[in-house]
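Re: that chain you flagged

S.,

Sorry for the slow reply, it's been a week of failed gels. I finally had a moment to sit down with the sequence you sent. For the record, here it is as I used it:
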Amino acid sequence: MLEIIAATVEEATAAERAGADRLELVSALSEGGLTPSYGLIRQVLSSVEIPVHVLVRPHSKSFVYSKADQETIITDIDLIRELGAAGIVVGSLTADGRVDEGFLGRIIKHKGDLSLTFHRAIDSSRDILEAAEVLADFPEVDRILTSGGHATALEGQGVIAQLIEQNPDLIVLPGSGITVERAEELLKATQATELHVGSAVLVDGQVDPEKVKALKQLLAR
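Prediction finished late last night. Pasting the C-alpha cells below so you have them in one place:
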C-alpha cells in the first residue's frame, strides 16, 4: 500500500493517475501539515476514486490540545465523515507525553466507519514503544504513522522494526524522509507493508509515475 501526500486537487489527481493506492490530504506542509479546508476535502473526494485519509490537526504548536482545540478536531471529524472520506489521520498527547486516551476515546466515538491513523504525534511521545502498546489496546486504531521517533524513517528504521514486531495487530506506516533510492533498505529492515511518501515521488514539483511505479514494485516483493 503506497500512500502519497496531496495538498491540492491537482496533486491528488496526479497521484491517483500515477498509481497511488491511497492519499493523505493535508494543507500547510511547511508547518508539517494541518487540516485541509472543507472545500478542498470536498473537491478532492469528488475528483478521485482511491481512498482519501484526511489529516486532522488544527495547528502546529504542539500535539497537546486545549478543550477548544479538541472541539475543533471533533467538529472537523464529523464533517469529514459526512463528506465521505475513507479515513482520518489524527493524534493527541497529554502534557506528560503520553497518548491522550480520554480524547482518543472521543475521537473513536465520532469517527464512525472512518479508518483511523494515529499520526506522528507518536514521534513526540515520551516513549514511542509504550505509546504503541497503548494504541494497540484500541482496536479502532488501524495504523500508526511514524518515523520511529527520528527526523526521518530511515534514521528510525530500527525502532520501526520493533514497532512492527511487537504490535502485529497494528499497521505501522513509515513516513518522513523516504527516498526511492533507500526505500528498499527501509522495507527490508522493517518488514513494513505500507509506505507514506511526499517529496520522494516528485520531480520538479510534479508526481513522477516512474518513481511511484518503483516504490510499488518494492512493496510488492
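What I noticed first: The CA atoms of residues 28 and 34 lie 6 Å apart.

Talk soon,
D.
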